[in-house]
Amino acid sequence: MDDVRLRVVGCDIQTVANDETVALVREAGGQMTGVAPIDLTDPDQARQVVEEAVAVYGGLDVV
After folding, report:
1. Which of 3, 15, 21, 35 is close enough to 11 for a disulfide, judged by CB 3.0 to 4.6 Å?
2. pLDDT digit string (tens) for 14-58?
């Protein structure tokens, strides 16, 4: 089996909570990009998360 690595893009309306989650994932050996503050009830901000994921990782596999 190929070496599959998960890359996570997360978001939170609270910047501090977002930063804590990113730190925990990275400390556990994961790769994560966090975008905050983001309000997912706003379509433009939701689009921003997708655009960030594409910019950092070249696309999305699962949403």
Report:
1. 35
2. 999 999 999 999 999 889 999 999 999 999 999 999 998 899 888
Q: Residue 46 in contact with residue 9, Cβ under 8 Å?
A: no
Burial of 39 (0-12, 13-18, 19+ CB in 10 A): exposed
Cβ 9 vs Cβ 56: under 8 Å: yes
- Token digits for 16? 């501090």
Task: Give the domain ranges of the chain.
Answer: 7-57
Handedness of CA 19, 25, 28, 31 (dihedral sign): negative
Per residue in 1-20, pLDDT (tens digit) is 455 577 889 999 999 999 99
The answer to whether 34 and 11 are in contact (CB under 8 A) is: yes
